[in-house]
Design a protein that fits this description.
Keywords: Isomerase, Rotamase. It comes from Ditylenchus dipsaci. One of its GO terms (cellular component) is cytoplasm. This protein is α+β, with helices and mostly antiparallel strands. The protein has one domain: Cyclophilin-like (Cyclophilin), CATH 2.40.100. About 10% of the residues lie in helices and about 25% in strands. It contains 2 helices and 7 strands; from the N terminus they run E-E-H-E-E-E-E-H-E. Strand 3 and strand 4 form a beta hairpin. The radius of gyration is 14 Å and the shape is globular. It starts with a strand and ends with a strand.
């Protein structure tokens, strides 16, 4: 099974700041990987709330240096919203992968069966991390200016 790769082009305070490339694991979490991939491409159209099911234009609402970046709330932008391509939320698939090194991507949720569109991970983007704080509130607006799937 191939591992799709997706990208986020990042703006910090409106200025292009780099690209994040993420590899998804449909071999381990097929539903989660498809949800993330489709939210990167925006191919599923509008969600139940009438907003595009797309990460493009959404913000990183939580940045804690040395720990994580969290984003994906394209409905409210503050960590209290988000939606999956399967409806508002979907069930957990498994917990086989662990955060053993920088760059591991995970879905953020509020407990069992509450996966939507929010995600977190520690990535190579030190400039994003430098805009974080211990409380998690970014000191700059960090936006996904574009996103999609990289085709091999």
């Amino acid at each position: 099974m191939s591992k799709p790769r997706v990208f986020f082009d990042i703006n910090i305070n409106g200025k292009p700041s780099g690209r994040m490339i993420l590899e998804l694991r449909p071999d381990i979490v097929p539903k989660t990987a498809e949800n993330f991939r489709a939210l990167c491409t925006g191919e599923k159209g509008l969600g139940k709330g009438g907003r595009p099911l797309h990460y493009k234009g959404s913000k990183f609402h939580r940045v804690i240096p040395g720990f994580m970046l969290q984003g994906g709330d394209f409905t409210r932008g503050n960590g209290t919203g988000g939606e999956s391509i399967f409806g508002e939320k979907f069930d957990d698939e498994n917990f086989d992968l662990r955060h053993t090194a920088p760059g591991i991507l995970s879905m953020a949720n509020a407990g069992p069966g509450t996966n939507g569109s929010q995600f977190f991970g520690l990535d190579v983007m030190e400039m994003i991390e430098s805009k974080g704080s211990q409380s998690g509130k970014p000191s700059a607006e960090i936006t996904i200016s574009d996103c999609g799937q990289l085709l091999e």
